[in-house]
Structures are given as C-alpha cells and as structure tokens.
C-alpha cells in the first residue's frame, strides 16, 4: 500500500475519535428562567472560567437577540458569538446560544438544526411557559434528545411531584427523573442521584461564585436530623414516581422519546455539576447526519457543514458577514476551499474565529459537532451546505410561520438601492421573511416575523448598516399558514378578510386576522394545504 491511504486512514480515525468526544447542545427556555446564570455555572463547573461573576441587577433589561451579550458585559469577556466551546473531562462541549424572547424563536429554531441535544430549562415556580412551548414542539418533532432542568429550586415553587405532572402534560413526553430534590422549594438541601441512590448535600457559597461544596451520602445518619427527614420525604415521593413514572431508558432518550429530568439551582450551583456530567455521559456525540436523500453521511467522509446562521457586521470595526457552520463530517481547516452546494461556487473559509474568552482568536481546525464562525463574502445563506469532494446537500432548515406582518417602505428615494440591498441581506440571513402581495403587483414589500421586536431590529439594522430610513406599518394579520398556489386562490376567494403573501423562493403564505378565522377557513376548506412550518417537508 502506498503511504497516502495510510495517512488518510489515520486522519479518518482521528476525525472519528474527535466526533465521539463532541457534545453539541443548546439551552432553550423562557426569558428569566436562568439561562445566562446556568451557562455561566456550566462554564464554572467545566473549569472554563474561575469564579462566576456576581449577578448584578438587570431590571428593565431590553430583550436582546443574545443573552450572551449580557454575559459578556457582566464578565468582561467577549462572547459576541453563537457558540461557547469548552473542554472538560476529555469531552468537548459546544454550547449554542438561543435567544429567550419569543420574537427571536426563529433563531432558536435554526440553532436546533445544529445541535445534537437540547436542555429545556424550566423555572420552578413558573413551569413551562406557553411562549416556549412552540419550540419544544419543534424540538420534539425533529426527534432531538431533550433533557429538562428545573431551576430556582431554592425558591418557593411547585412541589416536585406537581412539577413532574406539569412537565408531563405540557411537554407531552414521559419524563424520567435522574435527580430528585431534597428539601422543599425554598429550603433546598440537595438532590438524590437516582442512578446510585446517593444524596448530594450541597452548601451555598457566597453569591454562588464558587463550586458548591458537596457531601455525597449513601446512608442515613451521615448528615443532620433535618437532612434525614427531608431525604425520607424525597424517597417517599420517589416511590410514587416509580409506581407511575417511567424508568430512565437511554435509547428512548436518544430517540427523543423520553426526557431525563434534573432539579437544581443555577444561582446556588446546586445540581449544576450533575447536569454537566449527564450531558457528558448521556448526550449523543456527533453522529452521521442524513443528507437530503436520507443517507447518513459518515463523520469521516470529506468535509461537509451546514450553514445555520448568517450574521452581518458583528463587529463594527470589520464590516463583514459571518456564517456559522455546524460541521457534519471531516476536518475543518482554516483556509480550506469548499463548494456551496446551492450555488456551485467555491469559496475559501479564510478566517474562522472562536469568540469565547478572546477576541477573534483564530481556530485552526475543528471536527464534526463543532460550530465555527467563518467570515464570508458573496452569496451564502442559512440552510446552505458547504462541502469538499462530491456534492452533498443537507435538508433545508424549516422556519416558523410568521405571525406578525408590516409593510416596509423607504422614506428616502435617493437611497433606494441601499434599502433593497438591506432587505436582501435580511432575507438571506433568514431572520425575517421578506414578502410581497400575491394578488397584485404592489411593490411595497411586506415583512413577516414571529413578533414585533424582530421588526424593530430590522428597522434599526437597515438604518445603521445600510443608511436606509424606513417606515413600517403594522398589518392586521395575526395567524398564517404555508399553502400552495391552489390554496392561495381559495384563500383569496374567501369572503373572510384574508390575504396571501409570497416569498422570494415562491412559498405562499395565507394570512388571517386571527386563529378563529383561520380555523373556520380550514374547516370549510379541508383540502387546502395549511402548514405550520415553512420548508418542513
Ligand atoms: P435568562 O438568561 O434566562 O433570562 O435568566 P438569567 O440567568 O438572567 O436569570 C434571571 C434571573 O433569575 C436573575 O435575577 C438571576 O439571578 C435569577 N436566577 C437564575 N438562577 C436562579 C436560581 O437558581 N435561583 C434564584 N433564586 N434565582 C436565579 P434578576 O433578578 O434578573 O437579577 P439579580 O437581581 O439576581 O441580579
């Protein structure tokens, strides 16, 4: 055998080994459930940061597209990116950011296309909030393995059995508690680790800055009388759970059919180490991902990656665009030339940067499961596949059907070009739907989004990045479904006040003033295609 194939094999083996030790995940939650705090504490437990910063008052904080901006401000580190990568116990974690606010759930949906697992973070008092249910439904539909972490158990909240009930009802999947709280909400002492029936008794540290001292007990009498009493109550509850609940089943979890459940307090650092350990031990590594013909692409195939986010001008000093790619196979090398499967054009991934901890520290190589930001010029869009070797396409990323619409017009005729360039940019990023009316040649574009805050961001960006002064006007539509050309004709003919918009890619969106009109239309027209997600098939 010649030397070349041997090198190739050694390389392939290395890619397989690296893929095996990747854990790529996101935390999805409602704002204020504690995602920023938990992120920071996971970094603390992984040894990626020293002391956790003291949590400062953030009342009146405006919802941002990234909660990490807050983390960045608080810790004085640069986390302007989409991914935090840290290594612990031989495992490389890629934690992807998701904005908490409902108006940015589109971003979360795209992140879900890039992760192998998601942690559902729930506030112990508020439970799963309706705004985030849609995301859980999407995650479930995609079969992503899900873990649930009930946070803020140090404060009064639902009893654990009530919480289990509530989660089972709202998430519509069986939950398997891996840990169980000891001590009532508000007098939280620690958790039972059900895998070995030990009681992890935690002590608070001042301000939650350091790792919480922990005693692991396996029999009564090792702690104080109150510990014993609280432990006994927790065990009684667990007997009930055992009778009616489901035991943890690794395969069911990996298929996304059962949710392991953990309890804790991110602020006090209770249960955070256990959560990190569970992600390390149970969450899947980077596995072969199916191409659009359904064939799984082995991780040691030549390089291929999915673009799941395009962000413009992240750094005002470098007016560039960054594409965030999830590597699905092969080894990423800085400077490598790849082909975009949609356009057939080649491009150099000339500069990759990892933004955690440092400013634009360059990254020389990355492996399946990793997410990297590459600076791009030219036509690269969300959903594009970049590859070397023979052509591969990964399936399109579905988008949520918008529920809010505005017309957008340019106030300054002299900046017509900038206006259109800006709209094209927003459309390419996939952040907002740029639409036009289907039934006439009305030139005024329409923007569609999940919530009004997206429009504010769009208007601001058109102004600051493209110098376009725009005017928006809210349209009266609050429900929409994807339909086809035939469906569009039926919708336009309907006596109810409805309209149809078309996206650049030809997708038709039927819009309705509210859910009731939509449902009535659906009942009257059972044969008309009305889908919740765009590009879901
Ligand atoms: P988010 O990113 O999901 O929006 O949540 P974030 O971490 O910013 O936390 C929201 C609030 O919840 C913060 O309080 C934070 O301190 C608090 N928090 C997070 N985890 C826990 C927990 O385990 N227990 C308790 N009791 N609180 C927790 P805040 O009022 O916004 O700020 P501050 O007054 O605490 O500084």
Structural commentary:
Helix content is 28%, strand content 27%. Residues 54-65 and 75-80 have low confidence and may be disordered. A hairpin with a 7-residue loop joins strand 7 (179-182) and strand 8 (190-193). It has 537 residues and is an alpha+beta fold. It contains 13 helices and 32 strands. The structure holds guanosine-5',3'-tetraphosphate. Guanosine-5',3'-tetraphosphate is lined by residues 29, 31-37, 55-58, 67, 100, 151-152, 154-155, 265-268.
Could you list the spans in which at least 5 consecutive residues all have pLDDT below 50? 54-65, 75-80
Structural class: alpha+beta
**Strand coverage percent:** 25-35%
What binds here, in terms of ligands, is: guanosine-5',3'-tetraphosphate
Helix share of residues?
25-40%
Number of strands: 32
Q: Tally the helices.
A: 13
What would you report as the Rg, rounded to the nearest angstrom? 25 Å
Keywords: Cytoplasm, GTP-binding, Nucleotide-binding, Protein biosynthesis
Family: Belongs to the TRAFAC class translation factor GTPase superfamily. Classic translation factor GTPase family. PrfC subfamily.
Main location: cytoplasm
Subcellular location: Cytoplasm
Task: Summarize it.
InterPro entries: EF-G-like_DII (IPR053905), EFG_III/V (IPR035647), G_TR_CS (IPR031157), P-loop_NTPase (IPR027417), PrfC (IPR004548), RF3_C (IPR032090), RF3_dom_3_sf (IPR038467), Small_GTP-bd (IPR005225). By secondary structure, the protein is α+β, with helices and mostly antiparallel strands.
């Amino acid at each position: 055998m010649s030397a070349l194939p041997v090198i190739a094999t050694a390389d392939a083996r290395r890619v397989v080994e690296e893929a095996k030790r990747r854990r790529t995940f996101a935390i999805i939650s409602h704002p204020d459930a504690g995602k920023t705090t938990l992120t920071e504490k996971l970094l603390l437990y992984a040894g990626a940061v020293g002391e956790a910063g003291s949590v400062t008052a953030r009342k009146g904080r405006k919802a941002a597209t990234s909660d990490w901006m807050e983390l960045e401000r608080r810790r004085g580190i640069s986390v302007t990116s989409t991914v935090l990568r840290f290594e612990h116990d031989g495992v490389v974690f890629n934690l992807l950011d998701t904005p908490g606010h409902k108006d940015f759930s589109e971003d979360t949906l795209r992140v879900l296309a890039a992760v192998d697992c998601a942690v559902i973070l729930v506030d112990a008092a508020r439970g799963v909030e309706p705004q985030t249910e849609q995301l859980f439904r999407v995650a479930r539909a995609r079969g992503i393995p899900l873990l649930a972490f009930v946070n803020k158990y140090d404060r009064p909240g639902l009893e654990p059995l009530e919480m289990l009930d509530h989660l089972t009802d709202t998430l519509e999947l069986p939950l398997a508690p891996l840990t169980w709280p000891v001590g009532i909400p508000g007098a939280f002492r620690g958790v039972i680790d059900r895998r070995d029936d030990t009681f992890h008794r935690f002590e608070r540290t001042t301000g939650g800055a350091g790792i919480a001292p922990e005693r692991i007990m396996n029999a009564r009498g090792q702690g104080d009388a109150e510990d014993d009493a609280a432990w006994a109550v927790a065990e009684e509850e667990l007997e009930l759970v055992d009778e009616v609940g489901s035991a943890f089943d690794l395969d069911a979890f990996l298929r996304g059919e059962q949710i392991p459940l953990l309890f804790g307090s991110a602020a006090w650092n209770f249960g955070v180490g256990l959560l990190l350990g569970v992600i390390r031990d149970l969450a899947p590594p980077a596995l072969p991902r199916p191409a659009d013909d359904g064939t799984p692409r082995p991780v040691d195939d030549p390089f291929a990656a999915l673009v799941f986010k395009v962000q413009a001008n992240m750094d005002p000093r470098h007016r560039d665009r960054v594409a965030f790619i999830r590597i699905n196979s092969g080894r990423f090398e800085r400077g490598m030339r790849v082909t975009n499967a949609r356009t057939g054009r080649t491009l150099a991934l000339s500069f990759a940067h990892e933004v955690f901890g440092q400013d634009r520290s360059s990254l020389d190589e990355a492996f399946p499961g990793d997410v990297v930001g590459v600076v791009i010029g030219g036509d690269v869009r969300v959903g594009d596949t970049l590859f070397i070797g023979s052509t591969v396409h990964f399936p399109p990323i579905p988008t949520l059907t918008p529920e809010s619409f505005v017309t957008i017009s340019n106030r300054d005729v002299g900046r017509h070009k900038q206006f259109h360039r800006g709209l094209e940019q927003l459309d390419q990023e996939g952040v907002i739907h740029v639409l036009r009316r289907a039934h006439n040649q009305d030139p005024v574009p329409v923007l569609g989004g999940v919530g009004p805050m997206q429009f504010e961001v769009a208007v601001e960006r058109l102004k600051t990045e493209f110098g376009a002064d725009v005017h928006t006007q809210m349209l009266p539509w609050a429900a929409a479904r994807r339909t086809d050309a035939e469906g569009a004709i039926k919708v336009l003919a309907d006596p109810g006040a409805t309209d149809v918009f078309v996206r650049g890619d030809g997708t038709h969106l039927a819009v309705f003033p509210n859910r009731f009109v939509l449902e009535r239309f659906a009942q009257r027209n059972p044969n008309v295609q009305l889908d919740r997600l765009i590009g879901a098939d």
